[in-house]
Specification:
Blueprint (H helix, E strand, L loop, with lengths): L1 H22 L7 E4 L4 E5 L5 E4 L5 E4 L7 H11 L4 E5 L5 H4 L2 H6 L3 E5 H8 L2 E3 L4 E3 L10 E3 L2 E6 L2 E7 L9 E5 L4 E3 L20 H12 L7 E3 L8 H23 L4 H6 L7 H4 L5 H13 L3
Parallel strand pairs: 4-5, 5-6, 6-9, 13-14
Antiparallel strand pairs: 1-2, 2-3, 3-4, 7-8, 10-11, 11-12, 12-13
Bound molecules: zinc ion (ZN).
Amino acid sequence: MTIHRRLSVIALAIVLATPAMAQLTRTAEIKDIPLRGNIHMFMGAGGNIGVTTGVYGNAVIDTQFAEMVDRIKAAVGKLDSKPIGYVLNTHWHFDHTGGNEGLGKSGALIIAHENTFKRMATKSAIKDMKLEFEPSPAAALPKVTVNDTGTLRLNGHTVQMMHLPAAHTDTDVMYLFAEANVVHTGDVYTRLSYPFVDVSSGGSIKGMIAARKKILSHVNADTQIIPGHGVLSTMKELADTIPMLEAVEKRVAASVKAGKTLEQTLAEKHTKEFDAVYAPRPDQGDVFVTRIYNELAGK
Ligand SMILES: [Zn+2]
């Protein structure tokens, strides 16, 4: 029994370390997915990138990793010969802002939520992944910030920035290309996987659910949804996650309220009927429940 328990703990530690390690693949070829309105989605290493190019300036939403900067520039260069004039960040995480410094040094104006500036300008951590970050260099930091909402007018697009409070982090912004009906959600929505709520960055499971409902209120069946990670998505796929999140949150909350330990809570298999869709790896249901448990139990 003792040996078995110890093995379980070791197994869990490996499971929790895996997402961070997976994200440390910092280079990949860029795959360009053309969307409506001359908007593009780039997939590579790290978070998905949204792109608009044209006469009023080339802009990217998120910048993956420093190692990807040359590839991002080359991929945008195939669409338009001008340099990248704007970087828009969905949130502060390293796999979405890693290329900020390189693009900032090339002259891009970086725009993000005020909390993205605050977290990048100081020593920060993603505790769940055991990652710590030194303050970012000045070139990487947002130069224009918003708190609640903002509007950008780029290449004929009205781009609405909307803060999604205390969701994946406290730095999340969604970008809505109003006329083209295209949205970049950042990591508030990752397709066909359980969400990562980074409590150490001000995220919360309740805020995550509220944020997805807010995104839903701005989209329709035709909206092209760029998720933080994963392939292009739809309103239906996003909507389908809401009952799943609400059910799992409610169940874990009941376990916490009943004074159950994490081990007892995991044994209840609260994600069981959702794992076929949202757990590409079999451990991910337990990782998700562990995070909600720790948040709600204040661990
Ligand atoms: Zn993130």
